[in-house]
Amino acid sequence: MTIAVDFDGTIVEHDYPRIGKPIPFAIDVLKKLQEEEGHTLILWTVREGELLQEAINYCESQGLVFYSANKNYPEEEYDGKISRKLGVDLFIDDRNVGGLPDWGYIYQVIKSGNNSFNGIDRFDNERPEKKNWMIRFGEAWDKSRGRRY
């Protein structure tokens, strides 16, 4: 699976344009997804130029090397005319509906292989009707904070 991962607010806390404090377990989970589970990771961030290179260098200093950054493959050239939309299977981003759950939960969902919350319910035994996995992700996160649907 190819996974796009945001940087600010997802791997590190928001402190843009500086690099924020590390978010617990983010790097560890991403390395595990890449090395043990065989997923391809792309850094997907608003950062460009020197700020992007700082993010790449930070991740590399932690032992995390992305397949590419802000593009589908390393050789892709961005000329400002083509869409920067990525052809990935999954996005991990703190701006997701419901915010960013803890990295252990993200790992469980991805490891399940189906990108849905069917069968992964750390909150209770309810099984809501089938929904888009992004909606379920947000609902599960809200539920963990006490909000009921």
Estimate percent helicity: 25-40%
Low-confidence parts: 117-130
- Spatially, the strands of the biggest sheet line up as 3-2-1-4
Number of helices, where a helix is a run of at least 4 consecutive DSSP H or I residues: 4
Largest beta sheet, briefly?
Answer: 4 strands, parallel
In short:
By secondary structure, this protein is α/β, with parallel strands linked by helices. Helices cover 30% and strands 9% of the residues.
Description of the molecule:
By secondary structure, this protein is of the alpha/beta class. Helix content is 30%, strand content 9%. It has four helices and four strands, in the order βαβαββαα. A four-stranded parallel sheet has the order 3-2-1-4, covered by helices on one side. The longest helix is centred in the middle third of the chain and has 13 residues, at 49-61. The model is unreliable at 117-130 (pLDDT under 50).
Please specify the SSE layout and strand pairing.
Blueprint: E1 2-5, H1 26-35, E2 40-43, H2 49-61, E3 68-69, E4 90-92, H3 103-111, H4 133-144
Parallel strand pairs: 1-2, 1-4, 2-3
Helix pairs in contact: 1-3
List keywords for this structure.
149 residues, alpha/beta, 4 helices, 9% strand
